[in-house]
Each structure stands twice: as C-alpha cells, then as structure tokens.
Amino acid sequence: MALEVRPSFGAGDSSFRAAGGAVGLERLVDDFYRIMGEAPEARVIRAMHPDDLTESRDKLARFLCGWLGGPRRYAEKYGSISIPGVHAHLAIDEPERDAWLVCMERAIALQGYEPSFGEYLLAQLGIPAQRIFLTCQEPS
C-alpha cells in the first residue's frame, strides 16, 4: 500500500494548484472585488481603485499566480513589482488593511478550498498586507 505524500502549501506550485490554478485565482479575485464593492467596511479601499476594475482584477490574478508558485503571469505582462512600493502613495492605515483582509477572507470562504489551504492563504496574504500598511506609515 503506497501512501500519497502531498507537498505542503508553499512548496513548488502546491499553493497555486490548491487555489485551482489561474482559473481558480481569477474566480477568487472576481469574488474579492465584488465583495469589496458591497462591503460597507471596504468603502474606503474601494475608492482607492478605478471605477473600472478590469486592470486591477487582471493584475491581482496575475500576481497571485506567480506568488503562489504558478506561472509568473504578472511579470510576463507588467514586469517586476514591489507590492509595498506600488501602494506607498496610498493612505493605508489599520482599518484599510483590515478591510482588505476581510474582503479576501470572505472571497476565500466562497472558493470551496480545503480548510487548511484557506487558512494558510489568508495568513500568507496577511504578510504583504502588513508590509503595505507599514510602508504607508513611513514618512514621505
């Protein structure tokens, strides 16, 4: 009897695959931005985005692909990125960081991910969210 050994999340492309690949990440991003538009606590962060979210959706989905160990789709289309640097011009304080994470938590919950992956993904997304928050606190 052979035991199936599953790679832990964060190893190779295991997180990308657990998220459903590029299609799964596009669904996550669509739900995330829909929730952001509906959630009263996300009003401020929604206003930081353009009215037309087409490019924002594309950028986030592409970024997540590479960040989770899949194809580096963001770099292929947009080049390299510094997540904190791209957001440094925005007024992101604790409420904005937390609203972003709440929207992502709700979107993750809709995906039907294995619970351990959903928890892992939200915890991992908290790292760049915190880095963005800290970068925005630095004096200009």
Radius of gyration: 15 Å
What is the typical, i.e. mean, pLDDT? Answer: 92
Sheet having the most strands: none
CATH architecture: Orthogonal Bundle
Unreliable spans are: none
CATH class: Mainly Alpha
**Helical residue percent band:** 55-70%
Q: How many helical elements?
A: 8
What does this structure look like?
66% of the residues lie in helices and 0% in strands. It has 140 residues and is mainly alpha-helical. It has one domain (20-137): Globins (Globin-like, Orthogonal Bundle). Helix 2 crosses helix 4 (54-67), helix 2 packs across helix 7 and helix 7 (94-109) runs antiparallel to helix 8 (115-137). It is globular, with a radius of gyration of 15 Å. The model has no long low-confidence stretch (mean pLDDT 92).
What's the helix and strand layout?
Elements lengths: L13 H5 L2 H18 L4 H5 L6 H14 L5 H6 L4 H5 L6 H16 L5 H23 L3
Helix pairs in contact: 2-4, 2-7, 7-8
Quick summary:
The chain is mainly alpha-helical and 140 residues long. The chain has helices at 14-18, 21-38, 43-47, 54-67, 73-78, 83-87, 94-109, 115-137.
List the main descriptive attributes of the protein structure presented here.
Globin-like; mainly alpha; 0% strand; globular; 8 helices; 140 residues; single chain
